[in-house]
Amino acid sequence: MSDIYIILTGTLVAISCGILGCFLILRKMAMVGDAISHAILPGIVMAFLWSGSRDSVTMLLGAGSLGVLTTIIIEFLHKKGKLQTDASIGVTFTWLFAIGVILISAFTGQVDLDQECVLYGEIAYVPLDTIILSSGMDIGSKALYLIGTVLLFVILFVTIGFKQLKITSFDPEYAVALGISASLWNYLLMAFVSFTTVASFESVGAILVVAFLIAPAATAYLISNKLKTMIWLTCIIGFLSAVLGYYLAVALNASIAGAMATVCGLIFALVFTYVRISSKKVTKVTNFESVKA
User: Fold this and answer.
1) Whole-angstrom Cα distance, residue 179 to residue 61?
2) What is the pLDDT of residues 71-80, one digit of tens each?
3) Core-most of 122, 212, 250, 264, by most CB within 10 Å?
4) Model pLDDT for residues 34-48, shown as the tens digit of each residue
5) Is 224 exposed, middle or buried (0-12, 13-18, 19+ CB in 10 A)?
6) DSSP class per residue in 267-285
7) SS (H, E, C) 81-124
8) What angle do CA 29, 32, 36 make, to 5 degrees?
9) What are 130's strand-pairing partners?
10) What is the Cα–Cα distance from 172 to 174, expressed in whole angstroms?
């Protein structure tokens, strides 16, 4: 049963992150996902200091607030400060992440909220942290319910706002001409990225969640030319990464979350190689036919 909990949790994390990652890839904002996954750390700490507990809802609100703030700061530095996008991202997330590390070391030293937990996570502990009702009945893993709920909200958000997200991702200026607020949908997307990231912290950590956020979507982008197809392929790749990654970790006696992220990278490498070889073959055939003609 523990195996099922771990694989299912990894699958939900990969799919939740991957769906949002599709839009980040299309918006050329892949590194913004990395920035948010680190920059929300002070939001988590401040939410804990304010509430005095690690309640999931409080953590999600704190992370969401910092995620939106991160996006605002990046946009401000880029548009008003005339900095390049990559420089704006680098300055923002390193600064906010450093503040989070300082807050953790200064105010939460006696609490189970440390840098290692946030950075690396441990999905192997998911089956141990369960929800027990007042009747004494164990209804399953807490992380599974949390990430499952986040996935439902992500699906609902993308389903309702699919048209707006699609238009603002491909052509923001056209979206504005249609009366769609590109900024609003950008901030909503960043908020959901923040919520999903913090919900995944205890399972895979801030560093590894970036792999689930980008790698499956980037892989699907290489072999699809339709957004809906890209999203479906991303979900399939996320599922395969979770399953194969778990058994790879068992075989090597290594980090489960790390193995899942590694499989994401391997799948991307295989697809990338296949696409490159296929494109070269097409080019050779085309050149041969042109010479023959």
Assistant:
1) 29
2) 788 878 877 8
3) 212
4) 777 777 778 877 887
5) middle
6) HHHHHHHHHHHHHHHHHHH
7) CCCCHHHHHHHHHHHHHHHHHHHHHHHCCCCCCCHHHHHHCCHH
8) 150
9) 141
10) 5
